[in-house]
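Tokens in:
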């Protein structure tokens, strides 16, 4: 059924991009239940009207004949949402805290480089000599 593929794609898209993850699984299921239930209800209403047999047959061909045939698309939406949410959980970027030897917490800046924490680098004479050589070369 085409609705099974459509609801699986909707479930995968919402499961991957909606945060929190449980809502990304719940939304496609609710959408599928709403659409399938609405069509089933509309078919019940149109069944009592004259000259609607062709439309009823077409809707039943696309969405299913009874309540049992509604389970497949709803399950496809749920499975698509769960699989996408699980895969999205594993591919989300993790924030990593790096600790130095002195157990000083370092933060990652906006450019992706680590910011120096105070007291992390010792001032030594060799650093002063290197800075003076650079200043001398640049004429500062």
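Residues out:
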């Amino acid at each position: 059924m085409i609705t099974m593929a459509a609801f699986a794609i909707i479930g995968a898209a919402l499961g991957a991009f909606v945060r929190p993850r449980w809502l990304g699984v719940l939304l496609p299921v609710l959408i599928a239940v709403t659409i399938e239930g609405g069509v089933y209800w509309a078919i019940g209403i149109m069944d009592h009207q004259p000259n609607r047999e062709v439309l009823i047959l077409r809707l039943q061909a696309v969405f299913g004949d009874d309540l049992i045939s509604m389970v497949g698309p709803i399950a496809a939406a749920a499975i698509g949402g769960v699989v996408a949410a699980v895969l999205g959980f594993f591919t989300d970027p993790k924030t990593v805290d790096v600790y130095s030897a002195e157990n000083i917490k370092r933060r990652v800046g906006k450019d992706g480089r680590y910011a120096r924490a105070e007291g992390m680098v010792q001032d030594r004479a060799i650093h002063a000599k290197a800075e003076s050589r650079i200043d001398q070369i640049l004429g500062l």
